[in-house]
């Protein structure tokens, strides 16, 4: 695993543990010779992670849509900064550059990126590992939602195996390095194949 795309908040969040875990993840990525791919911001958890990786002499690629955010949002100290036309191209570019994905606490944008890459895995568009760094139980409601989705008949239980979950950055990266894509159940309940 050479590159991991990390989805995380452009705000710092309300808990000191978020920042602490982000700094730990930055250290773990560098210790494992894994380059960071992310959205390119200098602010919030995004900025903390990119700056930590750079501080430890790791490599960071940021992918930023042109003219969507003010210039002072962009981290100009990155190893590589790629400008793209829009958010759709940004997500595709980050996915193409990465061997795996990790979601940390964040807002709607982070959720959207996580669910899109999870959906792509369910459909077989990619077979890369997807991790949740579940700091202070931040993602417990999402995990609960996924279990409810299975219970209500909208998702197969095998889909949960697409998602690796840990509250420990080193453990999560190790899980991702050892990931073997699961065998998926037939997606459609009414289709007999």
TrEMBL record:
Pfam families found in the cross-reference section: Lysine_decarbox
GO BP annotations, alphabetical order: cytokinin biosynthetic process
Single GO MF annotation: hydrolase activity, hydrolyzing N-glycosyl compounds
Superkingdom of the organism of origin: Bacteria
Enzyme Commission identifier(s): 3.2.2.n1
One GO cellular component term: cytosol
Enzyme class: hydrolase
Keywords assigned: Cytokinin biosynthesis, Hydrolase
Family: Belongs to the LOG family.
Name of this chain's protein: Cytokinin riboside 5'-monophosphate phosphoribohydrolase
Species per Swiss-Prot/TrEMBL record: Anaerocolumna cellulosilytica
